[in-house]
Fold this protein.
Amino acid sequence: MKPRVLSGVQPSGNLHIGNYLGALKNWVKIQYDYESIFCIVDLHAITVYQSPEELRAKILELTALFLAAGIDPKHSAIVAQSTVHGHAELAWLLTCVTPEGWLYRMTQYKAKSEAQETIGAGILLYPVLMAADILIYQANVVPVGEDQKQHLELARDIAQRFNSLYGETFVMPETRLPAVGARVMGLDDPEKKMSKSEKGSGHAVALLDPPNVIRKKIMRATTDSNPAVSFENMGPGVRNLLAIFQAFGDWTDDQMKRHFEGMRYGDLKKQVAEMVAASLEPLQQRYREITADPGYVDRILAEGCERVSPIANSTVNLAKRRMGIYTRS
Ligand code: TRP
């Protein structure tokens, strides 16, 4: 049997080239080596207020983008988290075995709670729900970025604690992260990872940005005070632009150096913009085709739910039996 891989994305903000190069492109490549489940985590999205209209639209948009990027629904399950009721149910069972101190210690929680005066309790419990997403499918491998590593380790700690209290129930997800793609930084601030929630219009290139918007954003990207590319001495902005080009073009380091060494920044940006626009064109074309059939995306989500529900139900039932809460026999 193939190992099972699971990952998730929140249906909030706009999916951008950082999400594509850092995650989605890699998922598409590895999907056949695993039994693959890709989850649209709408229950995580509502840990902060979402406009209901927008959220509904974003879930469908994200599903269509997964498909347009090359996730193959004949092989991989695309699941809207809330359609599989066990996620929320298992999250409660896991909450009851999680020491609260583990949650207050999460750096993402600390950052969010320090930034705001009051936050929902869902923000604190966010990583328990994420543990439920992973453990409910007995996933072996969970490809996530560096920023989610602490949450993944917490999922392992929770699984271990449950298993030692109630007996072997959950598969331990591996901490090994399968080779992740490029880490793309913000165009306006190359010290920070490109983010979906960043509002600035010059921060990220969204996967659905039209070519003229892509060009405008890349031409405005932050560089440094040098006039031209020097591989010996370059700032983070230039390095980021080169990394984006290289990841889309699948060029070798050697090719990159030969082609770009000494190139003036104006020309570099033009070439990066053309590479990004040309690479996204087929994805955007597929997106238009997919969304032209109004019921298609709903059918994909219904299929995904049906496919994975038996796994989820059997894990939740097992966990309930182990804990001694009432299950109908
Ligand atoms: N917390 C993840 C993020 O913000 C999203 C997520 C939710 C996830 N559940 C998951 C990722 C399960 C991997 C596995 O990126």
